[in-house]
Design goal:
single chain, mainly alpha, 0% strand
């Protein structure tokens, strides 16, 4: 039971951190292109993680030995996921973004069933359906509609590809057991993925060395911190024995819920609506459906 509580606590902490990123990304995109912003964000995040790493010689040696597997994780988990995500946020409305991000556990469960041979059980299917329904209700109530005029089908496709890339990265982390500490592995994948995005930005974007206002640097610093802390927690969880990526990822359903709650607290123009509370109730119900049986089984043992 203690192990289950530890896993859930770490996963929830990561999701809480990630849920604060939307506002900061929008601020950053005012002054910088999506690839440049994502590149600088994750390069700094990787540097922030490094001081907390231990056993440098062993980790560097093993990381070099398994470099092809680590680079594959870098490609899906940082370069693909967040390069496409930052690009997609420049094209679509907040409602569509929230819905696609909230659908992450659904993508992970399906891909884990296909790639990782994790069974898509009846209980898991019911939990995913309930949680996804809650996300749809939140998207309608929180943002006032599903498809707004400014939404771009290209942006929707890019966000879907971003979600698939991130889901594949989660499965690779869980499936590929590399003898490198989760923190060091996270630092490498963040920095290398960020460096690749920053290099790409020189091809597609301009204004790399123009001065920015303080608002941008605050946003950049916070985005880098939550990337470093959130991914480190998530890497630790996915590397714990007995953790199934399709089950633990259902906690990502809380991202839009926490994001909406933070908006009510921080933004004066945001007010709670009853339809959003209905969506939150469904999200909570999906978590209970997924975890109630496990809790009961542990108690009996």
């Amino acid at each position: 039971m203690k192990h289950s509580l530890k896993v859930i606590s770490l996963a929830l902490m990561a999701c809480v951190l990630w849920s604060t990123a939307f506002v900061s990304i929008k601020i950053g995109l005012r002054y910088m292109g999506p690839f440049q912003l994502a590149g600088l964000r994750f390069m700094l995040a990787g540097i922030l993680v490094l001081p907390f790493c231990r056993n440098w010689k062993i980790n560097i040696k093993n990381a070099w030995t398994y470099r092809s597997k680590i680079l594959k994780i870098c490609f899906f988990q940082t370069f693909g996921l967040y390069g496409l995500f930052h690009l997609g946020m420049t094209m679509v409305s907040a409602s569509v973004t929230a819905l696609i991000v909230g659908a992450g556990p659904l993508f992970i469960a399906i891909l884990a069933s296909l790639i990782n041979n994790e069974p898509l059980t009846k209980r898991k299917t019911v939990a995913l359906t309930i949680g996804f329904s809650g996300i749809i209700i939140i998207a309608f109530g929180r943002f006032g509609g599903f498809m707004q005029a400014e939404a771009s089908w290209l942006g929707i496709l890019i966000l879907l590809l971003s979600n698939i890339s991130g889901s594949t990265g989660n499965i690779l982390i869980s499936k590929t057991k590399i003898p490198v500490s989760p923190l060091f592995q996270n630092a490498v994948q963040l920095f290398v993925g960020g460096l690749a995005l920053y290099i790409i930005s020189f091809v597609f974007e301009t204004g790399h060395f123009e001065p920015k206002p303080a608002e941008f640097y605050y946003a950049w610093g916070w985005l880098s911190f939550i990337a470093a802390a959130g991914f480190s927690l998530w890497f630790i969880v996915l590397n714990m024995p007995g953790v199934k990526v399709s089950e633990i990822s259902i906690w990502k359903f809380v991202l839009p819920v926490i994001g909406a709650s933070l908006a009510w607290i921080i933004l004066p123009d945001e007010k709670p609506e009853w339809v959003v509370f209905m969506g939150m109730l469904l999200v909570a119900s999906s978590l209970l459906v997924m975890y109630y049986k496990r809790k009961k089984t542990v108690k009996s043992e």
